Amino acid sequence: xxxxxxxxxxxxxxxxxxxxxxxxxxxxxxxxxxxxxxxxxxxxxxxxxxxxxxxxxxxxxxxxxxxxxxxxxxxxxxxxxxxxxxxxxxxxxxxxxxxxxxxxxxxxxxxxxxxxxxxxxxxxxxxxxxxxxxxxxxxxxxxxxxxxxxxxxxxxxxxxxxxxxxxxxxxxxxxxxxxxxxxxxxxxxxxxxxxxxxxxxxxxxxxxxxxxxxxxxxxxxxxxxxxxxxxxxxxxxxxxxxxxxxxxxxxxxxxxxxxxxxxxxxxxxxxxxxxxxxxxxxxxxxxxxxxxxxxxxxxxxxxxxxxxxxxxxxxxxxxxxxxxxxxxxxxxxxxxxxxxxxxxxxxxxxxxxxxxxxxxxxxxxxxxxxxxxxxxxxxxxxxxxxxxxxxxx
Length: 393
Known about the structure:
Elements: E1 39-48, E2 54-63, E3 68-77, E4 80-89, E5 100-102, E6 105-111, E7 115-123, E8 126-134, E9 139-140, E10 144-148, E11 151-171, E12 174-178, E13 184-193, E14 212-221, E15 225-233, E16 239-248, E17 253-255, E18 260-265, E19 272-280, E20 286-298, E21 321-328, H1 332-337, E22 343-353, E23 364-378
Antiparallel strand pairs: 1-2, 1-13, 2-3, 3-4, 4-21, 5-6, 6-7, 7-8, 8-11, 9-11, 10-11, 11-12, 11-13, 14-15, 14-23, 15-16, 16-17, 18-19, 19-20, 20-22, 22-23
């Protein structure tokens, strides 16, 4: 009799994780707390060298109720964006949760919440061997819940962190050295319920229908502190998620109130070029973040996030699946897709406010880098966008 079966041939589900005192429910760890098909547990990481010449985004996910796991690597250089996709069956006992690997891609946790190693053995001409070190403690964000009609579209928990990278990126035989004095990035891990690839059949259409959303996610790394901001609004401007946290190098944590954000867009598009974000410290003082995009990466062009027609998280693609897809970001079909998803940018930031600059005077500035992630889908009254196709003036 195999480990996973009882005398009646029914699957038991116990696995190696059940040897540890980590249970949260009266069931094996491998069984998700929800039977929702969209239950997931995944990570996202990005890396750049501050030049705007290259932006690498990668991630891996497990989908217990779909029996799958997958990973992706996106690299943008100039007008070319390359994606590598990998997927396979997940171990139903959860034995592969502690050794996160799919095909030649793996994530090694060297020091939880502080240090990781991300490896992609050469696959379709792309390879990685990168070590991540968190520069500050992780930020536990507020729970993220979205209801749509009578159902729950999203119910997730996430933590985020900014840090540095070291190692090598290999692209078609050429090695790119990655040094922590220039290569920075951010990462997050989230789990819960979120829309995945495919959809259950026979479901009633959303009522009311989905009219869009306004989304802003900005984790920034400065020398003395980091800021992690996340905001979501409905088409009428109602804020359903508001979380902005500053973590100092000495461990102090501040909530930065109700940020006011003004996004600047390239004329005739919905592609942002920058933003002015005004935060408020617990003392009532303003911290202003001037953020500029250095290089955009649409996550729905090869990354598998909402609206991607080429890759979807969690779908079964067969055993040991791999592929490489390269996109010309100036092609008409790609330009046409860009307004209908979230775009990640290499973000350069100047922070101004009290306690910054030389000797932390009454006012000063600090330079930072990080992720500038924005999506404006459909209507958004405060921004003046009337429908899905309305561009910036």
